[in-house]
Amino acid sequence: MRNTARWAAALGLTAAAVCGPLTGAAVAAPGAAPSSLYAPSALVLTTGHGSDAATATPERAVTLSCAPAASGTHPAAAQACAELRGAGGDFDALKPADGVMCTKVYDPVVVTVQGVWQGKRVAYERTFGNACMKQVLGGSVFEF
Amino acid sequence: MRNTARWAAALGLTAAAVCGPLTGAAVAAPGAAPSSLYAPSALVLTTGHGSDAATATPERAVTLSCAPAASGTHPAAAQACAELRGAGGDFDALKPADGVMCTKVYDPVVVTVQGVWQGKRVAYERTFGNACMKQVLGGSVFEF
């Protein structure tokens, strides 16, 4: 029940954040306060066609922030944050989606993740054989 | 007018996307579409005490997205995006704040910026003599 409420609140905040900075006291001031109350978790994820990030143009790039609430331009921020927490912040340990089949056509897609997860720097890069495999293996986190 | 509608649709879909994976063609999946309509601009900025990012713990980390609209956990996203656009995306060319004096006490603060600005990867790091100099020289962009 509490999770549901939190999830709904997070969704609301995603929209609110677009309209301007949040104001208020510590609990009510997520704009500035989180870093002193929470270890920061703020990421930017990119994806592009190619076998490595050095040569692939980033075709999409989204932000994902998971504290104090899930937000960002990631299309499924709340779900992505939940899956990342489930994996202990390890992008190699994300739970694959169930029951999806992918071709083995090689059309590589590279994903990068940079920023900070629970106070620690993240610099992650992973190449998938094709876009389907990226979505299956990365779950919601890489689905953007 | 079309942009406003698209923006509203994207917001709505951000919420909708939490409920399930996006399906359909490019135009029908605005969760995914913005990046094909706009060159993506999604950044994560960190700051910490120390003379370089390799050794400084990131004390704060915020996300900043500037297209299609300014958003993110950055406390002044709209202003930061405007200043960045004014500097042509060059973090060394940000306009310093006027009329602020800083001491020269050396208590270094390092700022990093990673992600994508108008479709190009950004990997920026800059060390300031102290926190005051960071805010003066970086304007709103580094004020988080």
TrEMBL record, chains A, B:
<feature type="site" description="Reactive bond">
    <location>
        <begin position="104"/>
        <end position="105"/>
    </location>
</feature>
<keyword id="KW-0646">Protease inhibitor</keyword>
<keyword id="KW-0964">Secreted</keyword>
<keyword id="KW-0722">Serine protease inhibitor</keyword>
<dbReference type="InterPro" id="IPR023549">
    <property type="entry name" value="Subtilisin_inhibitor"/>
</dbReference>
<feature type="disulfide bond">
    <location>
        <begin position="102"/>
        <end position="132"/>
    </location>
</feature>
<comment type="similarity">
    <text>Belongs to the protease inhibitor I16 (SSI) family.</text>
</comment>
<feature type="disulfide bond">
    <location>
        <begin position="66"/>
        <end position="81"/>
    </location>
</feature>
<feature type="domain" description="Subtilisin inhibitor">
    <location>
        <begin position="39"/>
        <end position="130"/>
    </location>
</feature>
<dbReference type="Pfam" id="PF00720">
    <property type="entry name" value="SSI"/>
</dbReference>
<comment type="subunit">
    <text>Homodimer.</text>
</comment>
<dbReference type="InterPro" id="IPR036819">
    <property type="entry name" value="Subtilisin_inhibitor-like_sf"/>
</dbReference>
<dbReference type="GO" id="GO:0004867">
    <property type="term" value="F:serine-type endopeptidase inhibitor activity"/>
</dbReference>
<dbReference type="GO" id="GO:0005576">
    <property type="term" value="C:extracellular region"/>
</dbReference>
<protein>
    <recommendedName>
        <fullName>Probable subtilase-type protease inhibitor</fullName>
    </recommendedName>
</protein>
<dbReference type="InterPro" id="IPR000691">
    <property type="entry name" value="Prot_inh_I16_SSI"/>
</dbReference>
<keyword id="KW-0732">Signal</keyword>
<comment type="function">
    <text>Strong inhibitor of bacterial serine proteases such as subtilisin.</text>
</comment>
<dbReference type="InterPro" id="IPR020054">
    <property type="entry name" value="Prot_inh_SSI_I16_CS"/>
</dbReference>
<feature type="signal peptide">
    <location>
        <begin position="1"/>
        <end position="28"/>
    </location>
</feature>
<keyword id="KW-1015">Disulfide bond</keyword>
